[in-house]
Specification:
The complex is a heterodimer of chains A (about 500) and B (about 260). Chain A has 22 helices and twelve strands. The chains are: A alpha/beta (about 500), B alpha/beta (about 260).
Chain lengths: ~500, ~260
């Protein structure tokens, strides 16, 4: 589901972003692994922070959508009850996932659909490419889908000589620029309208040569371009927002109508869906169709909600394939502490309220899943060592807005503990220094008498303080004093003062 | 009431003016304050950085030190910090359970049920909002993330501040936005932390306040460090320091109430 958010202001001095490779349109390129690419988070964040235009764009876009969300959530009297219901339904789904998936398979099959099971990205891509080849199609239209971004489907199809055309406006911009999405809902949030005009002119063959950067013109150019694709495509590929186990119904929620085109016009429809996207019954959709649009686009209701069940003779696609994707999800499900990350309905409310995301943008996370949810989902899906669990101040804003109440801060802490375990045998010097410092602090802070002595140590810093502050410290204190002063430690600790006071009594 | 003070490690070592102010304030309100000397730290830093094994002895020490409150020896434990209270309430049990210390985990739950952040203690437990303070200065209040979202202190600190004679409370733009401290986040992601701090400092300066107050010296240390680096002249002060100030014994902005030696 995607609404293109306002096309932020024109960049004053034109040209690609500073970290872009020359000759490109500022795209970061398509990585080998969509769940793990680019520099470490602190390094990528530093580069992003230097891009002031990006910071302004992100700041404007996220604050606009934050206030929209707050307004429409505020008008729902039973919002907290809805969140509880959403959370409870998802908890139930995870507890009964095998049984519900088999029910889904039965019901989709009974209604004329074909169900495929894919263990990982490679298998899912193989299945999809096989179906498209069988249909002798060399071009497919796509509905915006995180699952297919996660598995790098477009690149896999390209290797088979099949062109996959993204039809969501923002996703199209990202694809044309050979870029990666930087937001779950608004994948081109990092782009302004001048950049979009340049991308269209250079990469969209049928763009009018006199195209300006007026949003309406840009939208009409994309519309004309896509209309030709919709009318000629024989195969469409979608993701799914929800799948109803007891009826076999699939649901896609979107804003532009491109999804409706893809889901109705082509002869063959292939849906790639993460196995966690289930709800048990049709009635459960009522909860999520209220939670999702208000949390994501800040709308009371999204413009297009498409529901389909198998194949209907004479109406819509006459062949329907459902690819159920694992790709690390059963591993996440097996983890008691982390499994609620699978409750996510990809609304992206957590991105929009996150003070870290707001400043560094999505690419810094090096995953198709950025922001707070990405920081807990990505490392769990890959199982690799990651610095994403530390990409948060644990401020809790994400938990507060999550429509299915995923306790992201607590899971971040759990994942940090896992990182510390993984670092246990690490030869990395920084890991060893952290470990030694934490061990020493643990010793000093586990006993009142020891802490009494330790608490006096900062006093030595008074020797280098001026006017009550310390302006420069050697590494690692420089990490602090580079941007802020350190207040001068006191002459006397609190407990020494207390002891003296007790003695005087 | 007999109230045990958990001073917090950071205030004990770096900002003793806050726990001293808690003592002054509670004694002025007619309560007895005790400081159990065995205390050191609640374990939050270790937990939030992922060093759960290293957190265990720290948490055990805290729970053991404050266990008497569960037996009624003291009526409550007060903590001049939202994030330490949050850690005591939401993390200590988890740390002990993971270490297989189920009986100590039960004690931790009992202790945390009687542990309060300062504004909670004053408003919810002692039932006061006007503590008889006098502080004739322009003040803005930053609601720290954990006090706001982990504890849900709501407007209790502001109600306390509004009742202070002479105090002008100025609204802070984007008050609920994190200042970028995040404990070890400020070191592990120093650049992002600094970018967040810049925005918070600009909003604080924009209020025209002389004093920035909050319920956590950790966040105040961070924002205060930025205010000082920017040469803004705005002074960070803990909520307790303002509430401790009276006509008879006024506290001045930036005054550390040091005992000179």
């Amino acid at each position: 589901m995607s609404t293109f958010l306002g096309m932020p202001a024109t960049r004053a001095g034109r040209g690609p972003s500073p970290d872009a490779a020359p000759g490109t349109l500022g795209g970061v390129g398509r990585p080998e692994d969509p769940l793990h690419w680019g520099a470490t988070f602190p390094h990528a964040a530093k580069a992003a922070l230097a891009n002031e235009q990006l910071r302004r764009n992100l700041g404007n876009a996220t604050s606009t959508i934050r206030s929209k969300r707050a307004r429409v959530v505020g008008e729902v009297p039973d919002w907290e009850a809805l969140r509880d219901a959403g959370s409870a339904i998802k908890t139930d789904v995870m507890a009964r996932l095998p049984e519900l998936l088999e029910a889904l398979e039965r019901n989709v099959t009974a209604r004329g659909g074909v169900v495929h099971w894919a263990r990982d990205a490679a298998e899912a891509n193989r299945i999809v490419a096989g179906i498209v080849r069988e249909k002798q199609a060399d071009e497919v239209v796509k509905v915006k889908s995180m699952a297919t971004q996660e598995i790098g489907l477009n690149e896999a199809l390209a290797e088979e000589g099949i062109a996959a055309v993204e039809t969501d406006l923002a996703e199209l911009i990202v694809q044309l620029a050979d870029d990666m999405p930087s937001h779950i809902l608004v994948p081109a949030i990092h782009r302004n309208r001048t950049e979009i005009r340049d991308i269209f002119l250079e990469r969209m063959a049928d763009a009018p040569p006199d195209l300006t950067d007026v949003p309406h013109e840009l939208a009409m150019a994309a519309r004309a371009h896509l209309r030709r694709k919709f009318l000629s495509a024989k195969v469409a590929i979608s993701g799914a927002n929800f799948a109803v186990a007891d009826s076999g119904t699939l649901a896609v929620v979107e804003s532009e109508g491109n999804g409706r085109m893809c889901l109705t016009l082509p002869e063959t429809l292939i849906t790639v869906m993460g196995i966690e996207k289930l709800v048990p019954t049709y009635r459960d959709l009522e909860v999520f169709l209220q939670l999702l649009p208000r949390s994501s686009t800040g709308e009371r209701m999204n413009p297009y909600t498409s529901l389909w069940t198998g194949v209907t003779p004479g109406d819509g696609p006459q062949e329907f394939h459902l690819v159920l994707l694992d790709n690390g999800r059963t591993k996440v499900l097996a983890d008691e502490a982390g499994r609620s990350a699978l409750h996510c309905i990809r609304c992206s409310a957590c991105l929009n309220v996150c003070p870290v995301y707001e400043r560094v943008g999505g690419h810094a996370y090096g995953s198709v899943y950025p922001g707070p949810i990405g920081a807990i989902l990505t490392p769990q899906l890959t199982g690799e060592k990651s610095d994403l669990p530390y990409a948060s101040t644990l401020c809790g804003a994400c938990y507060q807005v999550c429509p299915v109440k995923i306790d992201i801060p607590s899971i971040l802490v759990e994942l940090r503990a896992r990182e510390v375990e993984l670092a246990g045998s690490s030869p990395d010097a920084a890991d060893r220094v952290w470990k030694a410092a934490m061990k020493a602090a643990s010793y000093a802070m586990a006993d009142g008498a020891r802490f009494r002595r330790a608490a006096r140590l900062p006093r030595a810093l008074r020797a280098i303080s001026r006017h009550g502050v310390i302006r420069r410290l050697p590494f690692p204190g420089s990490l602090w004093t580079r941007s802020r002063d350190l207040m001068e430690p006191p002459r006397q600790t609190f407990r020494d003062w207390w002891a003296e006071r007790e003695d005087d009594r | 009431m007999r109230i045990a003070l958990a001073a917090t490690c950071i205030a004990d070592a770096m900002f003793p003016q806050a726990p001293k102010a808690v003592v002054t304030l509670l004694e002025r309100l007619g309560h007895e304050v005790v400081f159990p000397a065995a205390q050191a730290c609640c374990g939050q830093m270790h937990v939030n950085t992922g060093y759960l094994a290293e957190a265990v002895p720290v948490v055990r020490n805290h729970v053991r030190t404050f266990a008497p409150v569960a037996d009624g020896e003291w009526d409550a434990v007060v903590v001049p910090s939202g994030s330490c209270t949050g850690s005591i309430r939401h993390q200590q049990k988890m740390v002990l359970e993971r270490a297989g210390l189920s009986s100590e985990a039960r004690t931790a739950t009992a202790v945390s049920a009687r542990t309060y952040e300062l504004s909670e203690l004053l408003v919810d437990v002692l039932g006061v909002t006007d503590v008889g303070a006098w502080f004739p200065h322009r003040v803005t209040y930053h609601p720290t993330c954990h006090s706001l979202r982990m504890l849900g202190v709501g407007d209790k600190p502001e109600r306390l501040l509004r009742a202070v004679e002479g105090l002008e409370l100025l609204p802070l733009e984007q008050a609920e936005g994190c200042c970028g401290f995040g404990g070890t986040f400020s070191l592990k992601n120093a650049d992002t932390s600094a970018a967040m701090l810049d925005d918070k400092v600009a909003d604080v300066v924009g209020t025209g306040a002389e004093v920035l107050t909050a319920g956590d010296w950790s966040c105040l240390m961070h924002i205060g460090g930025g205010l000082s680096r920017g040469g803004t002249g705005v002074r960070p002060m803990h909520l307790a320091e303002i509430l401790a100030s009276t006509r008879e014994a006024p506290v001045h902005p930036g005054d550390r109430q040091e005992v000179a030696r």
